[in-house]
Amino acid sequence: MPELETNGATELNTTIADALAGVGWIVIPNFLSADELSHLQQLATTRKRAFAAAGVGREAAHQVRQDIRGDAVLWVENDDAEMREANQRMADLQQSLNRELYLGLNELEWHFARYPVGSFYQRHLDQHRNQDTRVVTVVQYLNDNWTELDGGQLRIYLDDEQHIDVTPHGGTLVVFLSNRFEHEVLPAQRERLSLTGWYRRRTN
Ligand SMILES: O=C(O)CCC(=O)C(=O)O
Ligand SMILES: [Fe+2]
């Protein structure tokens, strides 16, 4: 029998859906429990050698450009047994967003991302040009004891060039509409670890 979502999880997913329908973004501290956080940190550590430099651009235009983004990534597979719980939480959120906002999301693609000391990701939009399949961006941070001095904030540009800075505290979840907000990762003064993903609507 499938596990039932707890009421807390359902409520949280509704809060996220409401925020997306309203301002279009939300930050949720302590989205991950301490156990979930340490499990994901351990996985990222165990798999450290499998991370590969991230690129920019799609297909033929794809290239590693550390002057644009300096992180290394490891994609998460759907059938990864170690990621079962994390994938399930994201699947539950996907279902809530579809139920409440009729977004028609049909998959999550996500990866671990490791930003070495001094690295950053320049201001960008997550939707690839001429392709609108990335609908909702989700980021979970996996860092212990992060302080303002460690840099690495996620800067989200709101309307009128106002911005908010999100500190990548372990367990924090950020969700925003992929086509609406340009954002950047400020230079990290410590190694910075996250899980970043996109709910997509397949066009074919
Ligand atoms: O790690 C973050 O805070 C955001 C990463 C990001 O913008 C991306 O991978 O597209
Ligand atoms: Fe991004």
Automatic annotation (TrEMBL):
Names of required cofactors: L-ascorbate
Domain Fe2OG dioxygenase: 104-201
InterPro entries the UniProt entry points to: HIF_prolyl_hydroxylases (IPR051559), Oxoglu/Fe-dep_dioxygenase_dom (IPR005123), Pro_4_hyd_alph (IPR006620), Pro_4_hyd_alph_FE2OG_OXY (IPR044862)
Key words of the record: Dioxygenase, Iron, Metal-binding, Oxidoreductase, Vitamin C
Domain of life: Bacteria
Pfam families referenced in this protein's UniProt entry, alphabetically: 2OG-FeII_Oxy_3
Protein name: 2OG-Fe(II) oxygenase
Species of provenance: Deefgea tanakiae
Origin organism lineage: Bacteria, Pseudomonadati, Pseudomonadota, Betaproteobacteria, Neisseriales
